[in-house]
Amino acid sequence: MKHLPVLLSTALLLNATACNSNDSVKQAQQANEAKADTATAATETGKLEEKNMNYDSEFLTKAASGGMLEVELGKQVAARALTPEAKQFAQQMVSDHTKSNAELMALATKKNITLPTVLGDDHAKVLKDVTEEKGIKMDQEYLKEMLKDHQEDVKEFTDASIKASDPDIKAFAAKNVPVLQMHLDMVTKMKPAVDARK
Fold first, then answer.
1. Cα 81 → chain centroid
2. CA 103 – CA 121 distance, rounded (Å)
3. Domain total in the chain
4. How far is CA 176 from CA 57, 72, 98, 111, 171, in A?
5. For residue range 72-117, what is the model confidence (pLDDT) as tens digits?
6. Which residues form the signal peptide (predicted)?
7. Which residue blocks in 81-197 are alpha helix, DSSP H?
């Protein structure tokens, strides 16, 4: 009888997980939240630690999905782009984000943070939206999405470089801000020339 509450709570957790979205980022975050719940005591200090752990793991799970998008989309656009600008930018994304993704995975492993293994729903939609386009339209859609994506990335990584509670995660975010800003500057310069093409 002592095990009944544990069995019931496990069953409820499994049921709640099954009812949730199939979004890989959300699934990874739920796994991380469960780890944080287990790792922290039910004290005020424990609750604060759990909140900080959740912020850090949420940042890494989103960054992982975003990094996978940059590489996968970069490969596809580099192979099919018509404009030299889109091709060059795509190749830069594959090169820089492959390196960053490897660092992110090593960091997550060290911190026992679960990462998504496939694109999250939002990033999968971007991949689909860009790759369904043909010719110059694909190049234009790609640079439009990359502009928006890198504006968000610069903000999120800058925030994490200040707000992350783990010093290694904070350092990872800070190290990547200049690279992301360089990508944002590149795409900002390239986009008008590609948009002007018919």
1. 24
2. 23
3. 1
4. 17, 19, 13, 18, 9
5. 999 999 999 999 999 999 999 999 999 999 999 999 999 999 999 9
6. 1-18
7. 84-110, 121-131, 135-163, 167-195
- Residues whose CB falls within 8 Å of the CB of residue 88, separated by 6 or more in sequence, listed in order: 190
pTM, two decimal places: 0.77
d(CA 163, CA 148): 22
Q: Is residue 14 part of a domain?
A: no
Q: Give the pair of three-digit tokens for residue 18.
A: 């099954």
Is 157 inside any structural domain? yes
Structure tokens at 7: 């069995």
CB 89 within 8 A of CB 189: no
Which amino acid type is present at position 183?
Answer: H
Distance CA 146, CA 130 (A): 10
Distance CA 196, CA 192 (A): 6
In a domain, 81, yes or no: yes
Q: Which residue has the tokens 């850090």?
A: 56
Residue type, 3: H
SS3 content of the chain, % helix, strand, coil (to 5): 85, 0, 15
